[in-house]
C-alpha cells in the first residue's frame, strides 16, 4: 500500500521497517537515488534476505541490523504493521521512529487490517493529528511531528525466574521470545535437560536466554554458547548473564549458525518455533548434528515429536520422546 505513495513523498532522509524484504525502502531509494534511506531490521535472518534481494543496493539504501533504529534525524519514517504482529514491539518502534523524526517530519504507517482502530489510537498518543486513508487491503496513516515527546515509555522488562533454590533476574524487550515471562516450553526443556559438571552446552534459538542462564546457575563449571537470529534476544541474554554474574555464558548473533564449531559440544538444547513447516527446526537439527561430539546429547522441546523421531533414525541412538506436562521433550545421543 505504501509503495503506491512513493511518488508523492518528499525527497528527504528516510527510515523504514519492513514485514517482508523492504520493498518500500528500495522503491523510495530508486525514486530518490541521492537521498539516504535506512531499512531497519531487528532480526539478522530477515536483514540478510534484504541484503541478498537488493544487491547491489539502489541509491543510498543502507540495510541496518540493530536492536534499535540508528540515531540521527530523518524527515520521513515509514512503519508497516501486520494485523497479527506483536503489539508491544509496534508501540516500541513507533516511539523510536517518532524520536528520529525532525520537527516537521512525517510518519506514514500502514496496516493490513481494513477496520483498524488500534494502530490509529497508538498514533494519536504520539501525534496531535493523524490523517486516516482507508484502502481496499487495509489503512494508511499520515502524521507530522510537531514537538518532541514529553514522556517516554520504557518497554524493557526485568523479572525474576526461580529454578528450584536458584533465583535469576531476567531482562527482555519486545520482539524477544518470550517477552515479560518464561515460556512454558522452556520450562519443560529445563525439567528434562541433563548437564554434567564441566560440559559444554549449545543453546540454539536462545530467545531471552533462560535455558542457558539456568544451566549456568545450576552448574557453574558448565559453559554455554547461546545463539539466536534476533539482535534483541542476544542483547537481553548477554545483559541477563552479566546481571546474574554468569560469565561462562556467551551470547552470539548467528542466524545461519556458521560460527558454531563442529563436534565441540556435549549437549545441545533447542526450542524451535512451530511455524515454517519445520524449516527452522531442520536448520536447528542440522546444526546440532554437526556441533555435538560423538555421544553428545540432544534435547528438543516440541508438541509434534513424530517429525523428530523420523529425522533421528540415522546417526542417532537412544532416541525417545518424553512427555513433560503439555509438551514432549525429544532426547537422543549422537552416534559414536
From TrEMBL:
PROSITE patterns: N6_MTASE
GO MF terms, alphabetically ordered: N-methyltransferase activity; nucleic acid binding; S-adenosylmethionine-dependent methyltransferase activity
Any one of the GO BP annotations: methylation
InterPro entries in the cross-refs: DNA_methylase_N6_adenine_CS, RsmC/RlmG, SAM-dependent_MTases_sf, Small_mtfrase_dom
Keywords, comma-separated and alphabetical: Cytoplasm, Methyltransferase, rRNA processing, S-adenosyl-L-methionine, Transferase
Boundaries of every Methyltransferase small domain copy: 169-326
Pfam families noted in UniProt: MTS
Alphabetized PANTHER family for the sequence: RIBOSOMAL RNA SMALL SUBUNIT METHYLTRANSFERASE C
Protein name: Methyltransferase small
Amino acid at each position: 500500500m505504501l509503495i503506491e505513495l512513493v511518488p508523492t513523498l518528499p525527497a528527504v532522509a528516510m527510515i523504514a521497517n519492513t514485514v517482508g524484504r523492504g520493498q518500500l525502502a528500495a522503491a523510495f531509494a530508486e525514486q530518490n537515488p541521492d537521498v539516504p534511506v535506512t531499512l531497519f531490521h531487528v532480526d539478522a535472518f530477515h536483514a540478510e534476505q534484504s541484503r541478498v534481494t537488493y544487491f547491489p543496493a539502489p541509491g543510498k539504501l543502507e540495510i541496518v541490523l540493530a536492536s534499535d533504529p540508528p540515531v540521527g534525524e530523518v524527515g520521513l519514517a515509514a512503519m508497516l504493521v501486520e494485523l497479527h504482529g506483536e503489539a508491544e514491539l509496534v508501540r516500541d518502534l513507533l516511539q523510536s521512529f517518532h524520536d528520529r523524526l525532525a520537527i516537521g517530519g512525517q510518519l506514514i504507517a500502514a496496516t493490513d487490517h481494513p477496520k483498524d482502530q488500534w494502530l490509529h489510537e497508538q498514533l494519536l498518543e504520539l501525534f496531535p493529528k493523524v490523517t486516516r486513508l482507508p484502502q481496499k487491503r487495509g489503512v494508511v496513516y499520515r502524521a507530522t511531528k510537531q514537538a518532541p515527546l514529553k514522556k517516554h515509555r520504557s518497554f524493557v522488562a526485568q523479572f525474576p525466574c526461580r529454578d528450584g533454590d536458584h533465583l535469576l533476574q531476567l531482562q527482555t524487550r519486545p520482539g524477544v521470545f518470550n517477552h515479560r515471562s518464561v515460556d512454558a516450553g522452556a520450562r519443560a526443556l529445563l525439567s528434562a535437560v541433563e548437564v554434567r559438571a564441566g560440559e559444554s552446552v549449545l543453546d540454539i534459538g536462545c530467545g531471552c536466554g533462560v535455558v542457558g542462564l539456568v544451566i549456568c546457575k545450576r552448574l557453574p563449571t558448565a559453559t554455554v554458547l547461546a545463539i539466536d537470529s534476533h539482535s534483541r534476544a542476544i542483547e537481553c541474554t548477554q545483559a541477563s548473564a552479566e546481571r546474574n554474574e554468569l560469565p561462562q555464558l556467551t551470547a552470539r548473533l548467528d542466524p545461519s549458525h556458521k560460527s558454531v564449531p563442529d563436534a565441540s559440544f556435549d549437549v545441545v538444547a533447542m526450542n524451535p518455533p512451530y511455524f515454517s513447516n519445520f524449516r527452522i527446526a531442520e536448520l536447528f537439527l542440522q546444526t546440532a548434528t554437526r556441533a555435538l561430539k560423538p555421544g553428545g546429547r540432544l534435547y528438543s522441546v516440541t508438541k509434534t515429536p513424530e517429525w523428530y523421531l523420523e529425522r533421528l533414525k540415522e546417526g542417532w541412538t537412544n532416541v525417545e520422546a518424553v512427555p513433560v506436562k503439555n509438551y514432549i521433550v525429544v532426547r537422543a545421543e549422537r552416534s559414536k
